[in-house]
Every structure is written in structure tokens, then in C-alpha cells.
Amino acid sequence: MKLNIKKGAALVMTVGFMLCGTARAQAEQWTAVDTVTANLQKRYPATPFKDIKNTPIAGVYQVTMGKNVGYVDESGRYFMFGHLFDMQSQTDLTAVPKDEANKLNFKDLPLEQAIKIKKGNGKQVFAVFSDPECPYCKQLENTLTRMDNYTQYVFLYPLDSLHPKAKGLAKQIWCAKQPAQAWQDLMLDGIAPTNTGDCAHPIDKNVELGGKLGASGTPTLIRADGTVSAGAMPRAELEQWLKGQAK
């Protein structure tokens, strides 16, 4: 078989140009990200920036600052905050990085300050900051009655500004002989504890902890991998979320 030198050379040159073009494009992207990083550090030296990435929009870059995800131009002067959507694929491009930015270390939670409720094999583990008078917390508890195989850690988290009686109820629940049963009796059946609530309790510590973690409302759920979600969910959505799928 004869080798066509001209065609072979042309093919090699074509592939070479393609590889060079790809390498050049990647280098330009990296250079742009490096430029954005340098500009941000120069303009805002006291702010820790991380995960600076390209977006599908030319000249717009995604940046994470603590628990915030924003978008910035190359100069670092102009910022946009909110969610970026790809309407063609119906994808929220901000959801995943925002979840990552807001993740907590579940192992750092003081679980001894929570009420433990195990159902079935207890495989799916999560914590929740709940207010005894919160209607959405009651909705969550009702949803959980139709689910199985989870371990729930309930941090009693009364929001005094919304529910003035919640702190007293939280103390009574914690001080009950069976706190888990007292919690479910109240949330599912409306049966309040009758004890005085006079015992050593972690309620004040829970309020302080929730504030530090950014739990501005109830229920606030924390999955075992540290992912945080605010608000009650329908059963199917909650089951998917506990399995690690996006909310």
C-alpha cells in the first residue's frame, strides 16, 4: 500500500492546528480567570474569594465569597447577585455552587443538644432546626410520618419574635420524660406537654448555634453531607433530597 505523503502531512497539520487552537483557547480562559483573581484581590484585599470560574457568558465570571455566589466582570468592578439560568436546558447554573458554598460540617453539630428520632434502619441522617409553633415544621413532621429509614436530629429552635410561646414549649419538650414522643405529640396531634419545663436544657445554645449557622427561618434542614435546605418539602422532593439529589 502506498502512503500518500501529502495527505498524511495535511492531516497532521490539521490535527496540529486543532490542538493548538484548543490549547490556546484553554490558555486564554486560564489567563482571564487569573486576571479576574488578581483584580479582585487588588480591589478587595480583605475579602476571601474562591472558585473563580468562567461562565457561558463571555466576560462574566462566577465567584464564591463565603456563602455567597456572585458574578463579576474581568475588572472586578461590577458584580451581579442572583441565579443564572440556562433557559435552553432549563438549568439553574447557580444552584450547585450555592449549595456547595453553604455546606456545613455535619460532624461539628452538637447532636447531644438535639432530640434523636430514628425510624426503620435510620440510614438517611439529617438534622433540622424547628420551632414548636412553626406551621411549616408541623408540615415537615407530617410528611415524615409517611417516610421510613431515617434518623432525624431535632434542634429545638424557638423564634421568639414570631412565636412568643415557643421557647416555653421547647423547654417543656426537652424536659419531658420522653422528649421525642413529646415532640411528635405536639407537632402531629397538638398535644402540649404538661410539665413545668424546669430542667437543664440546650434551648439557648440552640438559638445561638442556629444564628451562627444562618438558620433565619424554620424548618432548616441539614443533610449528612452538610447540604442545607430551608423550608418544608413535599414527600417526593424530600425523599430525593435526603438521597443526595438536588432540591
TrEMBL record:
<keyword id="KW-1015">Disulfide bond</keyword>
<feature type="domain" description="Disulphide bond isomerase DsbC/G N-terminal">
    <location>
        <begin position="29"/>
        <end position="95"/>
    </location>
</feature>
<dbReference type="InterPro" id="IPR051470">
    <property type="entry name" value="Thiol:disulfide_interchange"/>
</dbReference>
<dbReference type="Pfam" id="PF13098">
    <property type="entry name" value="Thioredoxin_2"/>
</dbReference>
<keyword id="KW-0574">Periplasm</keyword>
<dbReference type="GO" id="GO:0042597">
    <property type="term" value="C:periplasmic space"/>
</dbReference>
<dbReference type="InterPro" id="IPR009094">
    <property type="entry name" value="DiS-bond_isomerase_DsbC/G_N_sf"/>
</dbReference>
<dbReference type="InterPro" id="IPR012336">
    <property type="entry name" value="Thioredoxin-like_fold"/>
</dbReference>
<protein>
    <recommendedName>
        <fullName>Thiol:disulfide interchange protein</fullName>
    </recommendedName>
</protein>
<keyword id="KW-0676">Redox-active center</keyword>
<dbReference type="InterPro" id="IPR036249">
    <property type="entry name" value="Thioredoxin-like_sf"/>
</dbReference>
<keyword id="KW-0732">Signal</keyword>
<dbReference type="InterPro" id="IPR018950">
    <property type="entry name" value="DiS-bond_isomerase_DsbC/G_N"/>
</dbReference>
<feature type="domain" description="Thioredoxin-like fold">
    <location>
        <begin position="119"/>
        <end position="242"/>
    </location>
</feature>
<dbReference type="Pfam" id="PF10411">
    <property type="entry name" value="DsbC_N"/>
</dbReference>
<dbReference type="InterPro" id="IPR033954">
    <property type="entry name" value="DiS-bond_Isoase_DsbC/G"/>
</dbReference>
<comment type="similarity">
    <text>Belongs to the thioredoxin family. DsbC subfamily.</text>
</comment>
<feature type="signal peptide">
    <location>
        <begin position="1"/>
        <end position="25"/>
    </location>
</feature>
<comment type="function">
    <text>Required for disulfide bond formation in some periplasmic proteins. Acts by transferring its disulfide bond to other proteins and is reduced in the process.</text>
</comment>
